[in-house]
Amino acid sequence: MPNPDPTQDVVRDSPQGVAPDPLGPRDPRDVPRDLPPDATAGEVLAPYLHARSADFLRGLRLHTESGAGTGGAEEAARTLRAAARRISGTLHTYRPLLDPAWADQLRAELAWLSGTLALEHACTSRLVRLADALARLAGGGTAATAAVPAARAGGDPEGSRGLTVGAARAGALLERQLTLARTRAHSAALQALGSARFHAVADAVALLASEVPLGPAGAARADEVLDAPAAVVERRLRDAVGVLPLARAAAPYNAAALGLTAGESQDAPWHQTRGLLRLHRYAAEVLRGDGVPDPVLYEAARALDRHRDAAEAAAAASAAARTPRIAPATAYALGVLHADQRHEVEAARFAFQRAWSRTTAPVR
Fold first, then answer.
1. pLDDT (tens digit, 9 = 90+) per residue, 224-234?
2. Is the distance from CB of 27 to CB of 190 less than 8 angstroms?
3. Which residues pair with 40 in a beta bridge?
4. Which of 88, 168, 221, 266 has CA atoms 20 to 30 A from the CA of 132?
């Protein structure tokens, strides 16, 4: 069975990637704060995993009680995804303390589920983002228009009217493409939720709600073994941030990184950092036990969510521009849209740089 890296999680939290976690702040009762000196690692991990499993089962109940395509179904999917990624992230970080075969198998299945459920939401959020950006650009334009090469801009004899006409056609093209992708993702999600594979995952999580399969190290004292796995994730995160070009992200709308194709190849390290930051935040939830997200890490995470959303929206605009036999005005509007979203990528990098600069100590 495949063993995917949870740092490649593609889950979305909201249409614009900035909404609070659908599960809300962690309940302070989830993990005991005042453990006896001889408390074991299992006595810290188990309550957290029990609580996240209960969240998953709550999402499953919401899904069962709601009809497909309703607001309740969307809330159920968000709850399932949020719980699945927390369980998966915890199994990844604290694998040395758990039964490794069990942890790897459940983690792989949760990654399959969360990834499948995320696709429909990703298509919807991308369409909303691009439609809003097109409406804004056609209504008056932004600095993004300056990023379109002069030769291309000069080739539009209709000027701003050409952008308006092209925006309408570009919006229609994007809607057709992304609606088709969303419909396919919706069908895949319904098929997954009705499959025997999903029911096996739900059964495994239901068992986790009452029993956590621990390895030998799980019986060791928490103060001796619990910090080490979290420190590994934190070190990987800091190493990943260390190779990012934060100096170039020190100002928003960094013109040097813009262009119709330049930039996409540089996105991967930022996406990897986003996944590692997520793992770090979840590990901190286990260690702190207070259930309150660190505000600086939360701000940094949201900036990287914005980065991911804008980068993928830019890629969608670029893909649409490669559609055969589209009108020049449509291609021009898609080029402006691409540049606009690459501006958003740079703005998100700037926001992350500012938030990360305030992260000077490990979160414990």
1. 999 999 999 99
2. no
3. 221
4. 266
pLDDT tens digit string along 158-177? 556 667 889 999 999 999 99
Burial class (CB in 10 A: 0-12, 13-18, 19+), 39: middle
Total domains in the chain come to 1
SS (H, E, C) 216-233: HHHHCEHHHHCHHHHHHH
State the CATH number of the domain containing residue 116: 1.40.20.10
The candidate with the shortest Cα–Cα distance to 317, out of 272, 158, 270, 326, is 326
In this structure, the chain runs to a length of 364
What does R_g of the chain's alpha carbons equal in angstroms?
22
User: Distance (Å, rounded) from C-alpha 336 to C-alpha 332?
Assistant: 6
- Phi then psi for 156, rounded to 5 degrees? -100, 100
- Domain membership of residue 5 (yes or no) is no
Residue type, 346: E
Domain assignment present for residue 282? The answer is yes
Provide the residue type at 265 as one letter: S
Residue identified by tokens 């926001």 is 351
Nearest to 266 by CA among 149, 346, 353, 341: 346
In the predicted structure, residue 83 carries a pLDDT above the cut 90: yes
Spatial separation of the C-alpha atoms in residues 345 and 42, rounded to whole Å: 41
d(CA 11, CA 348): 18
The verdict on residue 335 lying in a domain is yes
User: Mean of the pLDDT values across residues 184-209?
Assistant: 95
Look up the domain containing 94 and give its range. Answer: 39-141+162-357
For residue 125 the two structure tokens come to 């959020």
